[in-house]
Amino acid sequence: MNWGKGIILGMALFMLFIIGMCVYMFRMPADEYDHHYYEKGLNFDQDYNKEMQVVTDRTRPEIRINGDVVHIDFKKSAKGNIRFIRPSSEALDKVFQLNTGTGKTALFSIVTLVKGRWQLVLEWKSDQKNYLYEQEVDLR
Predict the structure, then answer these.
(1) Do both 52 and 112 map to the same domain?
(2) What's the CA gap between 132 and 89, in Å, rounded?
């Protein structure tokens, strides 16, 4: 084989490689990204202040999982919401209303939630102060 045929063969193989990479890239699933990225950036200071309020007031809630029930113990009565965020699928995320009434404990049934790793985001108000706390838990 002379050098002209080698160049043509090399170019053909390179073109097949590029076409194969294009086909591969178009068949890949779309990247999942946070559609609320900029809104979260604008609200970062507010969320940071709520998280620091938990540290300042030493009001970190205690989270326990007993079977199919999540027990959340607060220092004082609380009202707000809790979000169960599934890192692998936004479609599985759940939001529950949080109200301890005059007590300090909130109970949530997790029978309908998929087993595995979840991010719990607690946002509550107690004594006219706003709090935000996040914790990862494993549901079994």
Answers:
(1) yes
(2) 22
